[in-house]
């Protein structure tokens, strides 16, 4: 796993051209929900963790399976 700071940057500024469409849609849904304040902090952490792991595994999969 990359260091946490790298993971946070991936969340804040996701490289859209590297992400599959579902992840982009998920990101925008997540941002819109977060902006209207309907997510509790605990749920927010779970979503960020899931998104980070998904992005990391997709990146590794693409790296080793061109």
Q: Please outline the major beta sheet.
A: none
Topology as a string of helices (H) and strands (E): HHH
Mean pLDDT: 61
- Beta-sheet strand percentage? under 5%
Helix vs. strand class: mainly alpha
Q: How helical, in percent, are the residues?
A: over 70%
Rg over CA atoms: 12 Å
Number of E-state strands: 0
Low-confidence stretches: 1-14
The termini sit apart by: 20 Å
The coarse silhouette is: elongated
Q: Count of helical segments?
A: 3
Architecture blueprint of SSEs:
Layout: H1 4-12, H2 21-35, H3 41-64
Q: What descriptive keywords fit this protein?
A:
66 residues; mainly alpha; 73% helix; 0% strand; disordered N terminus
Task: Characterise this structure.
There is one protein chain. α2 packs antiparallel against α3. The protein has a domain of 45 residues. Helices cover 73% and strands 0% of the residues. The two termini are 20 Å apart. It is mainly alpha-helical and 66 residues long. The N terminus is likely disordered. Keywords: Membrane, Transmembrane, Transmembrane helix.
